[in-house]
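Newbie here. two chains, one complex. Structure please?
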Amino acid sequence: MAKSSALNLGTGAFVALGFAALAFLTTQTTSRGVHISSPPHYDVIAKFDNVGDLKVGAPVSMSGVEIGRVARIDLDTREYKAVVLLRLNAKYNQIPTDSDASIYTQGLLGGKFIGLTAGGADTYLKNKDHIDFTQSAFVLENLIGQVLANFTKSSGSSAAPATAPAEKSK
Amino acid sequence: MNPLKELWESLLESVAGLGAVTAFLMRLIMHTPRTLLRFDLIVRQIFNSGALSLVIIMLSGLFVGMVLGLQGFQLLERFGSEEALGTAAAIGLVKELGPVVTALLFAGRAGTALASELGLMRATDQLSAMEMMAVDPIQRVVVPRFIGGVIAMPLLAAIFSLIGIYGAQLVGVQIMGVDSGSFWSQMRAGVDLRDVNEGIVKSCIFGVACSLIAVYEGYYAVPTAEGVGRATTRTVVTSAVVVLFLDYLLTAAFL
């Protein structure tokens, strides 16, 4: 009897471990995740015109040091702006209220992250405060579109005089 | 005998073998409902082929994940997108490496044990003795081993993938310095529930294939020392080839 209960225990532990692994794979590695709680923090809201492919969980950094994470991304349907909830570590509680937030890209094809630049105000950001100065993500398609538009405009306006096109593209 | 005729006969033989395996599978499935009533037998076999394979599965998973972390980092670093390491490692493990490597290890660890055990039972006339006592050896011995393997395999594959992802995280985040939040958030964004399902379906099918081949080879082993050895070898070789072949078919089907 003792041997059979040890056997059942071993099998039970194995099966439980297996299903725990399955549960982890389905909830923690996919987008339909359940998030586990984080250390002490406070939340700050920033509104952007365009967040590009910024993802929930992306780092928030200041002078290159990570101070928090993106906790939620929403759309404000009145202003049509992206509302980004930044979850900052409670340790960094002395960030001036007039700091500005910009979205940068890590590496050439890397993910987006938010960089904060300190302002000069004497008051500090608190929980649920808003960051007013924001700069949107750099969207490659828009930039290419602008360059193309400029190029066609400049070559169209100076079409009459026969000059070299290489000079015009400057 | 001319070579063409020989080839034709070996072809016929392999087709007949396939037929015999299919018939054996049908017999196992027919006996399954009654064996389910003897759940203690199945529990013992889940322990034998599942719990006892845990150590090799976990160690292999850790090292496969760590290698994936290193290689993936080296490759992704060239494009400046090391953060995609989490996605790359998770998709690679959950969809491919988890089920396939687990199936190969399972064939090597549990499949050989099943085949040699059944082969020895055959060689020492234990199976015939059961028949004499009006106990159906298929129902009493073979089906519990088969079902135990089928249940154990997907669980082992899930554990393998889980440990593998931690191995990749260990190398990528702790050693190479990929940002841990990006690692996990890009993984969550990049891995779909479909990918996980694909891995689960694959590992279930591999579990059926590996267990079936092991019990078939063992049950029909030539009842000599040499025959048991050959059955064990054939279990590993056939399982490996069948798993890789099925993997191609399943991947194509899931695309």
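Moderator note: Residues 41-142 of chain A form one domain. Residues 159-170 of chain A have pLDDT under 50 and may be disordered. Thread marked as resolved.
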